[in-house]
Amino acid sequence: MIRFRNVTKHYPRSGNALEDISFHIRKGEFAFLIGPSGAGKTTALRLVHMETAPTGGEVTVSRYSSSRIRRREIPQLRRRVGFVFQDFRLLERLTAAENIAFALQATGAPRAEIRPKVMRLLGHVGLASRAKAYPGELSGGERQRVAIARALATDPLVLLADEPTGNLDERASIGVFELFRQLNALGTAVILATHDTTLLRRSPETRVLELESGRLVYDSASDAAARPARPSAGASPIFEFVADAADAPGRSETRQAGPEGPGGSAP
Fold first, then answer.
1. What are the φ and ψ backbone dihedral angles of 162, each rounded to 5 degrees?
2. Which residues fall within 8 angstroms of residue 168, CB to CB, at 6 or more apart?
3. Is 140 contained in some domain?
């Protein structure tokens, strides 16, 4: 579903955020994208979400190509790619249920279908009893679960998460991570950009993509035996995407994110 082919992303003031990145990830895969700030994680996520375009190379998501996609097709693409942010991005004046309903209304979902689906999604993330609570009345972990439910509102094939546990304590982080694993077990591909080594230790079998200074320096799916030694402070995140070459919901690939902040819009 997602493929990066020799992708470079250049910013006039800061230079290359990504440099000649190529990768391919299978449908339904769970992958960590790791690396320090400025390694290219967020830029890679934004490229997959088509919020920005590569300077060179091509990003393909399902049947959409960065070199051919039309502006009117971008909302269709984003229904297939859910996005979860570190800072939740919930509307404070709306309840948990209303935040999810708002996302469905924006996609033109029939009114009669919205409430039942909202309650199913809240139940899925363990928050059915908090449907009427406002974001300010929820804990950080609960707010992130609402954000995940909102990202799932369009039944995406891929769920992108940009440092989703960065503002949570350890217990809440583990709870959110286990929710991502459950969603992945149901068939949703998950690409999780993180600095949290605790999460990596909890899932040593999960694919890891590592970015360093805009380059893909390690892919556990192919480089495990040949990984070079590196200083302990030199880790950089790698971005991975899931794609399936043979299907519309295809395989994904990994990209690097640049020094940009998380500028995406919630699906």
1. -105, 100
2. 140, 141, 144, 176
3. yes
Which residue from 125, 130, 139 is spatially nearest to 181, judged by alpha carbons? 125
Distance CA 188, CA 125 (A): 14
Residue 266 lies in a domain: no
Amino acid at 145: R
Domain count for the chain: 1
Q: What are 172-187's pLDDT values in tens digits?
A: 999 999 999 999 999 9
Query: Which range of residues forms the domain containing residue 52?
Result: 2-234
Q: What is the CATH number of the domain that holds 210?
A: 3.40.50.300
Q: What is the mean pLDDT of the chain?
A: 84
Radius of gyration of the chain (CA): 18
Q: What angle do CA 179, 164, 241 make, to 5 degrees?
A: 80
Is residue 221 included in any domain, yes or no? yes
- Does residue 260 surpass a pLDDT of 60? no
Collect all residues with Cβ–Cβ distance below 8 Å to 25 and sequence separation of at least 6.
2, 31, 189, 191, 207, 240, 241, 242, 243, 251, 252, 253, 254
